Amino acid sequence: xxxxxxxSQWLSRRPLTKSVFSIHSTTxxxxxxxxxxxxxxxxxxxxxxxxxxxxxxxNNSCLSGMYHNLYCPKCKGGQLMERSLSFHIITNGDFAMxxxxxxxxxxxxxxxxxxxxxxxxPDEESLRLEPLGPKLVAYFKERLISxxxxxxxxxxxLSGDKNVIAFTYTQNGLIVGCKYRTMEKRFWLxxxxxxxxxxxxxxxxxxxxxxxxxxxxxxxxxxxxxxNCVSVPVGAPGKVSSKDLPPIEKDTAxxxxxxxxxxxxxxxxxxxxxxxxxxxxxLAEELARxxxxxxxxxxxxxxxxxxxxxxxxxxxxxxxxxDALKRIVENAEPYTSAH
Length: 339
Ligand SMILES: [Zn+2]
Fold this sequence. Notes:
- This protein has 339 residues and is α+β, with helices and mostly antiparallel strands.
- The protein has helices at 3-12, 40-50, 116-119, 134-142, 147-152, 215-223, 255-259, 261-265, 278-291, 313-320, 322-330; strands spanning 67-70, 85-89, 95-100, 108-112, 129-131, 155-158, 164-171, 174-182, 187-189, 208-212, 229-231, 269-273, 296-298, 333-334.
- It folds into 3 domains: 3-114, no CATH class; 117-194, N-terminal domain of TfIIb, CATH 2.20.25; 201-339, Dna Topoisomerase Vi A Subunit, Chain: A, domain 2 (3-Layer(aba) Sandwich).
- The two termini are 36 Å apart.
- Residues 207-296 form the Toprim domain.
């Protein structure tokens, strides 16, 4: 239970007083009559959204209907280290707003406690999806991805643009988002896209899964006979963090993993088939330390020539074929950290 939660409970035992909007005090007091207990949920949502912005709430600043002077994460209060950020949660806790009163800074903004993402759930229309045209089908064919696999995975293109692939993200059969990809390997996410693994519905009943580093690698493994495969939605970290694992709510780069925790908890064996380059290996390590090394296995990509290794599942599929890819996955070894 957070401090804010305790504070709400403590306050809720006191008689509630209607809020007074005129209070603009620059000092805070627990006993202020205008402070209403906020629902823990609303405060938690606000805290969750404020922390990445550098605004950390303590007991005092969780109180609604009052103005609080905090340190500004942008200018740090200048040389005098003033508490220059005027911060306010409105009385019903629906949103928080702030402004830094140092003229050279003036940082201002607001966040809402409701889950706005729920209001604009993505769908085929809002994501502007249309069936793949012949140009992109040919692009995939060259990578040995069949139309059958494209169809089963609902791969689309951006409507009106024959050069932008749209990988649809689904959960329980419903679209929850989309990643667009140009021929030049530029990526962006569709509006409202939920942070989850790509191919999530394919591991609902799986007790053994494969994790790859790109949507095309998932499609490649399907060509080799594996549907129990998901791809991470975002690229690899540059290197393995030297820090301890952050708490889940602060582990922003891996939020997609925690959002899928229920799917992963029942899995006994996880084969990591990320790219063979250093960022891909760093990703494998970051996944393994979150998933538990003891259930992780690792694919060893074969040598391409004297100097280099095959990069990923699609490259193996393309140059060695589906059977070879299948064998390589079968020969995954227990995970050992390269670090
Ligand atoms: Zn400032």
